[in-house]
């Protein structure tokens, strides 16, 4: 059996729908008795499931939540323990990867693979909806407006040349322009098809991470996967990645010592169908961290 540290944040206040706060609460115990242990030989050692303050202003609550989350993540990174983080909505990425970047200071050669249907690169200035879960990447890249920067806190920023987005198929002009200007690699669905499919793309991206970065992380927004395979998300977009193909491709990550952590976000149990998304989450985590003897 392999053991991986697990942290959760039951927070959906940065999104447009309630529900994905139930994800980590529900999955908290699944690692002990479920598919992960039986099929993948993996135990999740749950540290904590953080919750946002509900009695204060939303932005203040998020700032505080991400601060505590980042502290937890920093502790694990400094002890060199790989982690699984379960959101929550994708705004939590600010706390997770902000924490990783702080733990690695001053070394900045950290890479991040961002699997998502969206670019999550808005700021309060460019967003029509004002949904903060559409903004974490702008903050991580150091492109936040003052309001968003205040939520992100004092962490260092991601190097745009060490960030890769995979699965994008719904984005707005301001986000596209930002990522283009910074030279961020984006594999949208068309480019994935042109490049020979998800397996080929992930192999290429993982190779480049291993060569160019001391450490890398992966964040999976479940809406990057096709809603037929992962219906239990806040903002489904048709035409996404195949869940099975993603699991297959992720088995190559194996026990790569350069992989510092995995975030799985936007799981909304209220919208799930026949536990399909819930099971896929276990398969994804098992594919990355499990022991693959068959
Ligand atoms: Mn996202």
Task: Give descriptors for this structure.
single chain, 294 residues, alpha/beta, Arginase, Chain A, 17% strand, binds manganese (II) ion
Secondary-structure map with pairings?
Blueprint: E1 2-9, H1 22-27, H2 30-33, H3 35-40, E2 42-50, H4 58-78, E3 83-86, H5 93-103, E4 110-115, H6 136-140, H7 146-152, E5 163-168, H8 173-182, E6 185-188, H9 189-194, H10 198-212, E7 215-221, H11 243-250, E8 259-265, H12 276-289
Parallel strand pairs: 1-2, 1-3, 3-8, 4-5, 4-7, 5-6, 7-8
Helix pairs in contact: 4-5, 10-11, 11-12
Describe this structure as you would to a colleague.
The chain is of the alpha/beta class and 294 residues long. It has one domain (2-289): Ureohydrolase domain (Arginase, Chain A, 3-Layer(aba) Sandwich). It has helices at 22-27, 30-33, 35-40, 58-78, 93-103, 136-140, 146-152, 173-182, 189-194, 198-212, 243-250, 276-289, and strands at residues 2-9, 42-50, 83-86, 110-115, 163-168, 185-188, 215-221, 259-265. Helix 10 runs parallel beside helix 11 and helix 11 (243-250) runs parallel beside helix 12 (276-289). The longest helix is centred in the first third of the chain and has 21 residues, at 58-78. It is globular and about 45 Å long. The mean pLDDT is 91. Manganese (II) ion binds at residues 90, 116, 118, 120, 221.
Quote the CATH topology.
Answer: Arginase, Chain A
Shape: globular
**Number of helices, counting only DSSP H or I runs of 4 residues or more:** 12
Number of domains: 1
Rg, Cα atoms, Å: 17 Å
Instruction: Specify the CATH homologous superfamily.
Output: Ureohydrolase domain
Molecules bound to protein: manganese (II) ion
- Output the strand order for the largest sheet: 2-1-3-8-7-4-5-6
* CATH class division: Alpha Beta
Strand content: 15-25%
- Major beta-sheet overview: 8 strands, parallel
Intertermini distance: 15 Å
- List SSEs in N-to-C order: EHHHEHEHEHHEHEHHEHEH
Q: Find the count of extended strands (DSSP E, 2+ residues).
A: 8
Q: What is the CATH architecture annotation?
A: 3-Layer(aba) Sandwich
Given as residue ranges, the uncertain stretches (5+ residues, pLDDT < 50) are none
């Amino acid at each position: 059996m392999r053991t991986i540290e697990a942290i959760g944040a039951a927070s959906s206040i940065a999104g447009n729908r309630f529900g994905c706060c139930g994800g980590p609460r529900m999955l908290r115990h699944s690692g002990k008795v479920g598919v992960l242990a039986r099929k993948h030989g993996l135990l999740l050692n749950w540290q904590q499931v953080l919750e946002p303050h509900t009695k204060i202003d939303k932005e203040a609550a998020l700032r505080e939540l991400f601060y505590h989350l980042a502290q937890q993540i920093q502790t694990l990174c400094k002890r060199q323990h790989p982690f699984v983080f379960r959101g929550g909505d994708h705004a939590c990425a600010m706390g997770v990867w902000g924490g990783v970047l702080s733990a690695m200071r001053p070394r900045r050669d950290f890479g991040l693979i961002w699997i998502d249907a969206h670019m999550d690169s808005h700021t309060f200035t460019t967003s029509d909806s004002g949904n903060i879960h559409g903004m974490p990447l702008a903050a991580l890249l150091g492109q936040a407006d003052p309001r968003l920067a205040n939520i992100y806190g004092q962490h260092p920023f991601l190097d745009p040349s060490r960030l890769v987005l995979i699965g994008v198929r719904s984005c707005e002009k301001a986000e596209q322009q930002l990522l283009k200007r910074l030279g961020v690699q984006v594999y949208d669905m068309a480019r994935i098809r042109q490049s020979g499919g998800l397996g080929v793309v992930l192999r290429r991206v993982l190779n480049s991470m291993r060569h160019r970065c001391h450490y890398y992380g992966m964040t999976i927004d479940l809406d990057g996967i096709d809603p037929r395979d992962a219906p239990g998300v806040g903002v489904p977009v048709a035409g996404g990645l195949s869940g099975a193909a993603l699991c297959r491709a992720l088995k190559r990550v194996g026990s790569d010592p350069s992989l510092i952590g995995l975030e799985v976000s936007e799981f909304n149990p209220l919208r799930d169908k026949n536990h399909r998304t819930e099971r896929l989450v276990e398969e994804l985590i098992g594919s990355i961290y499990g022991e693959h003897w068959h």
